[in-house]
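Subject line: Sequence and fold of a protein, written as structure tokens
Area: Proteins and the way their chains fold up in space.
Start of record: The labelled sequence and token lines come straight after this line.
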Amino acid sequence: MDIMIQIQRRAENMHFWINVNNHLVYKYYGCLYTSLSTIETNGEGLTSIISKDDLDRICKNFCLASERKTPYYCPKVVRGGTWLTCHYFKYGGCDHRDGAAYFLQYRGRDIHTECLAASGKINMDAKEFRNNLIGINDPRIRYGSKPYHPYCFGHFHKYKIDAKDIAGYEALDDANKAVLDKYIKKSDDYDIPTVNKAYYDEYCCAEECLESETPSKFPYPYTIKSNLHLQIKFQNKLYHPKCLQASGKVNIDAKDVKNYNALTQEERHSIDQIFKKTE
């Protein structure tokens, strides 16, 4: 089993790759793909549409998956309740107990801690489990109307402040300050748009979305369509490229947009037409 990676078209050498080199390149729905192992061992002349950092991350997680060490195989601690039923109660091996304080979610299933331990399906210490709970005395970041673990907030958001600039920082003890200092750091590229293919349907955050006849918000249909649109992330919000440019929030050349070089030639051309810095 191998991972297939989409590659850029290169007309000057593609004929050689497809017809001579034992079908190292495959065409699927008009796009060209090659295997991850081919890029690593025999990839001269092939250019992936994703960055080297992303390729390295894919390789790392592919190896971890073979050892069952990815988050999918790592139990997550969730708060219990009478509405949760242990997976093993349905399929045998569990004495049902209502009102369990905590459950473990393992591969999408809710399981009592004792039942998962007895199953022999995992081999790790409890401290390696993912904790989805924010305890009463745990530090949390409130952003908008939602609370976050400091790690989760730091992992999924960009910001132009350091931990010490967060309201309430000075009231924390040294241990909790250290937690925030570790995960909340000012982003160097907060004001730089990042372009990617849309892999999920999303809403464009422009006040007036140019790609939709309906408002770009719930309960209307998503306006950024997966596998159809490019999306631009700017200051933690998603836009269609033309919507971000029309908003007046940025004044930047296309080549200065992050991930520009990872796009196909056709996609770069479309971005070139949209983003042109003015003096």
In short: Confidence is low (pLDDT under 50) at residues 11-22. The chain has nine helices and twelve strands. The longest helix spans residues 52-66. The longest strand covers residues 31-35.
